[in-house]
Amino acid sequence: DAGITQSPRYKITETGRQVTLMCHQTWSHSYMFWYRQDLGHGLRLIYYSAAADITDKGEVPDGYVVSRSKTENFPLTLESATRSQTSVYFCASSDWGFRSYTEAFFGQGTRLTVV
Amino acid sequence: QKEVEQNSGPLSVPEGAIASLNCTYSDRGSQSFFWYRQYSGKSPELIMFIYSNGDKEDGRFTAQLNKASQYVSLLIRDSQPSDSATYLCAVFIYSSASKIIFGSGTRLSIRP
């Protein structure tokens, strides 16, 4: 199916464990983004990528790692999960020049709970 | 200072009235501006975008952009209960590392 998909949809993990959230898009969009959403903070940018093998830190990158070996995939890894990383995580993709603006299309989100 | 600022609300508006949502941004490199609507438990969905100074209308929605004042707003006419949601302002910043930054969102409630 065309679009952007995240997995898993829900995840409970223990403090200190490594966890990876997956994001896959089928449009070949060059830009991909990871956001976290917490009450009162809107969407905060964690990491973003302009193309394969190009990634940059966003507003709140500490404790997270990303990679982008293929254009369509942009996994987010929490190296050692902490309770403060309990949040809803959204992946998005976009493409500069498409219809002359760069709308971000969102995945359905991953609700992560760290206990 | 956050790059994109919004009043968190909640903003309560009677049904049929005009709802006015405001957003300011700090980066003058900002190129495109978006309004997303997000229902509770759902992903954000785009409702309006604007990249030129002035007004842009789409049905009951009007986006207004003033780049000199670094200000973008969203007007919702004839507000309906289904408009009750959180509205997120977003800014596309074009540079060597282009990115999309969101505000914290304004919760809108339309009362019957």
Notes on the protein architecture:
The complex is a heterodimer of chains A (115) and B (112). Chain A has strands at residues 4-7, 10-13, 19-25, 31-38, 42-51, 54-57, 64-66, 76-78, 87-94, 105-106, 110-114. With 115 residues, chain A is mainly beta. Chain A starts with a strand and ends with a strand. The mean pLDDT of chain A is 91. With 112 residues, chain B is an all-beta fold. Chain B is built from no helices and eleven strands. Chain B has strands at 4-6, 11-14, 19-25, 30-38, 45-50, 54-58, 61-66, 71-76, 85-93, 99-102, 106-111.
Task: Describe, in short, the structure shown.
Chain A has 115 residues and is mainly beta. Chain A has strands at residues 4-7, 10-13, 19-25, 31-38, 42-51, 54-57, 64-66, 76-78, 87-94, 105-106, 110-114. In chain B, strands 2, 4, 5, 9, 10 and 11 form a six-stranded mixed sheet that branches. Chain B has a five-stranded antiparallel sheet with strand order 1-3-8-7-6, with no helix packed on it.
Secondary structure category of chain B = mainly beta
Strand content of chain A: over 45%
Total number of strands of chain B: 11
Radius of gyration of chain A: 14 Å
Give the helix tally of chain B.
Answer: 0
What string, H for helix and E for strand, traces the elements of chain A in order? Answer: EEEEEEEEEEE
Distance between the ends of chain B: 36 Å
The stretches of 5 or more residues of chain A where confidence is low (pLDDT under 50) are none
Tell me the major beta sheet of chain B: 6 strands, mixed
- Portion of residues in helices of chain A? under 10%
Radius of gyration of chain B, in angstroms, nearest whole number = 14 Å
Q: Measure the end-to-end span of chain A.
A: 34 Å
Indicate the proportion of strand residues of chain B. Answer: over 45%
In the predicted model, the low-confidence regions of chain B spanning at least 5 consecutive residues are none
